[in-house]
Amino acid sequence: MTAEQGYVSALFERLDALRDHAEGTLAQAVKPAQVRTHQGQLERDAAVRHYSERAARLSAAEHGLVFGRLDSDDQEPFYIGRIGLYDEEYDPLLIDWRAPAATRFYRATPMDRLGVRRRRHIHLKGRRVARLDDDVLALDDLDDAERRHLAGEGALLASLNSARTGRMADIVATIQAEQDTVIRSDADGVLVVDGGPGTGKTVVALHRAAYLLYTHRERLSGSGVLVVGPNATFVRYIDQVLPGLGETDVVLASIGELYPGLSTVRADPADAAIVKGSLRMATVLEHAVATRQRAPIGGMTIVTDRDEYVLDDQTCRRIRDSARERAARNRQPHNRMRRYVVRDVLDELMRQALQKLDAVLEGVDVPEMDEDEVDQDLASLVDHDALRQELLSSSAVQEAFDILWPELEPELLLADILTDPHLRADVAPQLSAAERDALQRSDGVAGDHWTASDVPLLDEIASLVGPLDAALEQAAGQHARAESARAQATEQQRQIVADAYDVAMDMAIDEEVAMPVDASVVLARYHDVDASAPLAERALRHRDWAYGHVIVDEAQELSPMAWRMLARKCPTLSMTVVGDIAQTGSADGASSWARALGDVVGGKWRQARLTVNYRSTQPIMAVAGDVLAASGADEEAPRAVREDGAPPWSIRVVEEDLHDVLAETVHRERTALGAGTLAVILPLPRLDGCVAALRTREPGVRTADDQDVLDAPVAVLTPEQAKGLEFDATVVVAPDEIVAASRRGFADLYVAVTRPTGRLGILHTAPLPAWWSRGDIRSRATAAAAGAMGCP
Question: Residue 636 pLDDT more than 60?
Fold first, then answer.
């Protein structure tokens, strides 16, 4: 222990020195200065961004800096930690857990040692070595001194038995072999990580994000990684993992947060969600846009202050069809084609105006001039630009543009579809009358009234229509200013490239990597006028931001339309898809991975399966297995790594005593737990009544609507809200009502009973079903409730 403490202290001294250097350099870079050239701005932006990220990574490594040591057959022992550290001579002091050299720490087993003799887990409390755990893979090879210094009970079991804090923690010190294989899998293509409750799917996916950002930093640091979770509570639950691993180029969001300016947690009724999530909606939305590209039957008449013009139906069709053909040929959205419609209409109006002028001129008798001279002289009197501008500024002409090819906004178009039954009948003939009626909204569809199922539809429309002209003009202005700045710096370009190379070399040395950063990457990254903003902020602000990799958690819940949206956000289709089909609860969720992904990637995806439950004990998983079997699912519940644990219990209570018994039961469970977290999981109709009853006994009760629900001593959630979370103890209320509440009620109950790490209780008013009698659920009553309850 003393020897390890000495080495650990030296590592922290090196960390302090590197952090002081990064923070000092950053302080110099952000000082007010006269930056007169593009070159100077480039250098300053590069330095600020680089040293900010460097300081953040070093600070994040403070907690649990080193957690492992590997003794092998063929080399000196080396230490593994959150980041890589090198001394001033560039000799390694600490190996980053993501480096190839660290792979053996996670994958070596007694059956396949990979040359490893001993794997030591180092547990820190602050900067002090608190405990050592040794995994000896070659006991016969250890000498007497090494045998005397073996220590520990096993890092994994110690971690599993610790109390939960309400936030997900990283597992860099205890990654298991099957998890490590997933984490280090190639980034190309779509990887499906399938596994039952508690197998570590989420935390493995987050560590995979950290691994990919480390391994492919040059490619991913500019585009980032998007992590999509099932709801806002889940996103808060995981939001500390990646920053704790020193990674900030990550966007965490739920589906309801993936449309700029919108954040919604509202859900549609099941029948509406199914229709909105169907791929048929893509055709419906395409038809809706097409109906706004008009060629009025009989044409149209335009009356300006000066004259009257006629666009016959043939001309209207020609203008419309020309714009459509151009859009299809160039793959351009609706709004970008409006300029061509405007041009073609103005050309036609100009032709008619000049034709009328010619007719007037033909009636003018000018005997002193021959005909050619008259045409030439009078034509020169017409200011074509002024006439065109006069037509363009006419309100009647503008109205004609809007009739033929209006600018479209996704929110307004979707609102029309959801509130106008006649429009739906026109654009959605492939939907049944009942399906079209399911889409009807009577409470408005703006602001807080948008639902999570609306977000993929809004994004789909946005991809079809593109930005408005005003947005295009703003973007064009920004581009022009950037081009002007680049033009002013033309004479300095050679020096800029040279300086960028120096910056790149400094970055490489400071990062202590083996290969220098390409100077062109530095130039490309810092030419962005918005580059100083955090990546997450920039990405969420731009709907068409293309991410380098996307991780989808609880992916079985996504609708086909949501998958289309995510495919647009990651054109390379580099994705990690994490989930469990047996837990699908949403009405528009997946029944198989092939069906979920087929329309997005076809058959081009691969699958890895996690098989071991690290969350719940075997007694809890036996109860969960009964639920899974009753659901008719083909899957089996994953095997628990912890065989022993408190037996699950149940209390049957008459309806009028439910609230009192629940309050007492939760109080008892909180007392038994001491430290730790507890959740009450129940059907939505019982939420308000149970919360009110619990708050009479437990003032710290919170629901998913509360921002601090994850930090509360008692969280009251529905199965949908609890998805992906874990607690030390869980009380499930009215399991029969959970099953009956939806067409996938068994999946919701499966989610509910697999949330706890150690204690599971069931409170029910109806008898437990016969299929649950096989599980070891002990019926019991509290002393206070025994007299009130009419049954055991």
Answer: yes
Percent of the chain with pLDDT over 90: 51
Identify whether 170 is part of a domain.
Answer: no
Q: Are 508 and 517 in contact (CB under 8 A)?
A: yes
Residue 466 is labelled as binding a ligand = no
**Residues 278 and 345 both lie in one domain:** no
Question: Quick one: 601 and 659 in the same domain?
Answer: no
Alpha helices for 38-186 (secondary structure H): 38-60, 103-107, 144-148, 155-161, 177-183
Residue 534 has pLDDT above 90, yes or no: no
Would you say 745 is a known binding-site residue?
no
User: pLDDT by residue (tens digit) across 537-589?
Assistant: 888 888 889 999 999 999 999 999 999 999 999 999 999 999 999 999 888 88
Is 703 annotated to bind a ligand? Reply is no
> Is there a contact between 288 and 455 (Cβ–Cβ < 8 Å)?
no
Within this chain, do residues 689 and 743 fall inside the same structural domain, yes or no?
yes
Boundary residue ending a domain (461, 485, 503): 461
The CATH number assigned to the domain holding 203 equals 3.40.50.300
Most confident of 117-126, 235-244, 474-483: 117-126
- Residue 92, pLDDT score: 93
Which domain covers residue 366, as residue numbers? 294-404
Say which range, 47-56, 298-307, 493-502, 572-581, has the weakest mean pLDDT: 493-502
For 100, 114, 526, 685, the CA distances from 104, given in Å and listed in that order, are 8, 7, 38, 51
For residue 247, what are the contacts with CB-CB under 8 A and spacing of at least 6? 57, 209, 210, 213, 214
| Residues shown for the chain | 792
- Minimal CA–CA distance to 54: which of 80, 19, 85, 98? 19
Q: Domain count of the chain?
A: 6
Amino acid making up residue 351: R
Q: Note the pLDDT of residue 673.
A: 86
Instruction: Tell which wins on pLDDT, 663 or 633.
Output: 663
Q: CA 103, CA 185: separation in Å to the nearest integer?
A: 12
165 is annotated as contributing to ligand binding: no
Over range 622-633, report the average pLDDT.
91
In Å, what is the CA distance from 108 to each residue of 103, 138, 642?
A: 8, 11, 21
Q: Is the distance from CB of 635 to CB of 581 less than 8 angstroms?
A: yes
Grade residue 43 by pLDDT with cuts at 50, 70 and 90. low
**Whole-angstrom distance, CA of residue 494 vs CA of residue 501:** 11
Q: Are residue 41 and residue 147 in the same domain, yes or no? A: yes
The whole-angstrom separation of Cα 154 and Cα 759 is: 22
What is the average pLDDT value for the chain, to the nearest integer? Answer: 83
Same domain, 681 and 715: yes
- Measure Cα distances from 257 to 205, 251, 455 in Å: 20, 11, 8
Q: What 3-state DSSP class applies to 417?
A: helix
Indicate the helix (H) or strand (E) that contains 775: none
> What pLDDT is attached to residue 490?
40
- What is the layout of strands, in order, in the sheet containing 66-72? 85-86, 92-96, 78-81, 66-72, 116-125, 128-136
Please indicate if the annotation marks 198 as binding a ligand.
Answer: yes
pTM above 0.85, yes or no: no
Summarised one tens digit per residue, pLDDT across range 349-375 is 999 998 888 777 676 665 555 555 555
202 among annotated binding-site residues: yes
613 close to 197: Cβ distance less than 8 angstroms: yes
Taking the C-alpha atoms of residue 681 and residue 31, their distance in angstroms, rounded to an integer, is 53
With the CA atoms of 437, 439, 440 and 442 taken in that order, what torsion angle do they form, in degrees rounded to the nearest 10? 150
- Please check whether residues 301 and 343 belong to one and the same domain: yes
Residue 583 lies in a domain: yes
